[in-house]
Protein 1
Amino acid sequence: MKDSDQLPRRILVTGGAGFLGSHLCERLIGQGHEVLCLDNYFTGSKQNVAHLLARPNFELVRHDVTFPLYVEVEQIYNLACPASPVHYQHDPVQTTKTSVHGAINMLGLAKRTGARILQASTSEVYGDPEVHPQTEDYWGRVNPVGLRACYDEGKRCAETLFFDYQRQHGLEIKVARIFNTYGPRMHPNDGRVVSNFIVQALAGKDITIYGDGSQTRSFCYVDDLVDGLIGLMQTDSAITGPVNLGNPDECSIIELAERIVSLTGSGSKLVYRPLPADDPVQRRPDITLAGELLDWSPAVQLEEGLAATMDYFRAQVGLQEVGQ
Ligand code: NAD
Ligand code: UDP
Ligand code: UDP
């Protein structure tokens, strides 16, 4: 059931200058909302939202969510947190602080203002899953002391905080468990697989497969994901989630590499590198719940989404001629 109130709102997007955040801000601005975009530019950049700066209903603020924030808003999308393993492992203590202290501050803000608040959680809460595809009632298999734990356990703790603020203080919460999402405005050096493979293919460099490439992921195009996030925010107040948002079209990392090589027409060859610790073997969302609650399912096919992402990277890194 949808919240029928579609009035323009004052909306805070933390991590709004990042990959997902910038698309979300763009969409909310287009819908006529007043958007306060907050970011510390750790992995995001002003460039990602430069095209919104002249809009009268857009405001950009440099702020770190681990510090308190006093503003007046009606909705909060809490996206602040590095998402790429390379970046979140760079300063793991800061990553956990961002998830945990950031959640406490944003929940405190929501409590004071009465704002509805959505958490960008992750499929990483399922860890290296034994249940496949992953359903929301699966509690996951996370190594609490491994290299990914700063992110996984930080996000798990944030979910706990969201539900405790809801039970203890009656907050209106929404928790989205986002699965691998890709698209324009991913950072070229982000380290995630789609951006790495596209940048490597366009430059004619070797494509780096970690492990034997048989591990799987399911890739969702950013426009579909933004539809899901906004749809979840607009649900009836009784709906909290967690709700999986992702594309169930699963493929191995080798298959992804082959598709990208073929789409770019690149001469790149595949090379094999060691598999990082605790790298999940398989991942695919069960999106039945999102279908029921939000009437949502992804519409963009992988090849279509990859083509749009490649166009972005070609323009970004000035590699138009390479690999064509
Ligand atoms: P991203 O790294 O592009 O964006 C994160 C943004 O948060 C960046 O702009 C960064 O500068 C900002 N940030 C980091 N720490 C901050 C802090 N302490 N204070 C303020 N801002 C801070 O990554 P993304 O892919 O856009 O991910 C956005 C959110 O979605 C993250 O919370 C991530 O965990 C979640 N998520 C993303 C995916 C995905 O596949 N893209 C999957 C699961 C979950
Ligand atoms: N907070 C904030 N903005 C607000 C209200 C609170 O950043 O508008 C932060 C503040 O740092 C506080 C945290 O949110 O410590 C949690 O707030 P809450 O009211 O839950 O707890 P308390 O203030 O009692 O510690
Ligand atoms: N990966 C890879 N080569 C790369 C980057 C990543 O083979 O250059 C693999 C990585 O080991 C993982 C998968 O691709 O199995 C997805 O990695 P990503 O960092 O994008 O996301 P996550 O592991 O968090 O799902």
Note: The radius of gyration is 19 Å.
Protein 2
Amino acid sequence: MDGVGIERYVGLIDAEIIAAIQRAARSIYGLRVLHVNSTFHGGGVAGMLNSLIPLMNDVGVNADWNLLYGDPAVFAVTKKLHNGLQGEDVEITQEEIDAYLSINQTFALYSPVIHHVVIVHDPQPLPMIRFRQRENPWVWRCHIDVSAPNPQILKLVSPFILRYDEAVVSTEAYQHPSWPIDTSIIPPAIDPFSEINREMTADEMDQKLAEYGLDCSKPVLVQVSRFDKWKDPLGVLETYQRVKQDTDCQLVLLGNMATDDPEGPEIYAQVVQKANELEDVTLITQTDPLLVNALQRCAAVVLQLSKREGFGLTVSEALWKGTPVVAGQVGGIPLQIDDGKTGFLIQPGDYDSAADRILRLLKDPALQEACGVGGREHVRRNFLVPRLLLDWLNVIRELA
Ligand code: UDP
């Protein structure tokens, strides 16, 4: 099973973190904590909850997980809110807002909240708080890049956010003057024992790649991401085209469809059209965590050319496997990459620079190796799930 039992981390992370977790948990043993989000799989939030919740339970906090059952129409509205909070101009009608509120109202009626602390993730279940009798602290955990939000959308969601006792964001850049509630910063983290990140043998890797007709005989460039415009998959194809003119290589774009992201199929169709003009491009939409793992391991370079990115777990995932990453200098990505040392940061949309950095890595195995070693150590120290657990225990302790 993935990530159950804090003792698995002994020897992998600093012992002080494990001791600090036990100390922090001691004062809140038996406390009931509820996490609420809107999808069980697809996207980083679901992945993180899958690892964090068993660990919370393991150290003595009773953590539950509830899902908002949205329908596609409502998820189209919440994706607009997501896009608006990331700065896009979006139009939302009163009818759409009513549908969003109505589904949250129904959800609130069906969800018993018998917990001491409630943690609500992202905009989908954000208004649920309005429809509950408040007895205990509620936390809004915002995973998205809110460094430059669209003012209209900010105005729309602020009344809900202001009802919360605390907000939690991924980096300082997301602390917002419009939300003068207490705000903590908790960067996300990866689970080294999950199917996405666990060790794989060379045979296992080859087998997994072969299932998809892939092999690493030509250097592989990989981006693992939902087909989302903020992840700029078309920009990845542009960049690949430039690299391929100089050095023979192949590109794999792997992106599953999250149930709460209705834009995926539309973006995917655009990607297919452009990819058809290029050679040695493989597009995969299957959900297969071991394939993510194998690809991030076999890649010469992992790309994450995002234009906005709450954090970008895929960056830490690749670095953990010793693979250098070329990524957009946005959101939480600069926390993870030391430019020139564990990979390279580029300005979003600067495909010439992206291609230049990729070529530098492809032509310099020693640089690839050095980036990999430094990257893994950086992730070990900062972005493994026990540190995330400790941060949450401290927030819960303060609130309870
Ligand atoms: N992921 C996956 N399969 C895919 C695409 C993504 O398992 O086809 C995983 C990826 O490895 C990472 C998470 O989904 O663990 C995405 O998290 P990230 O923070 O990178 O982006 P988000 O989708 O949350 O914006």
Note: Residues 365-382 form the longest helix (18 residues).
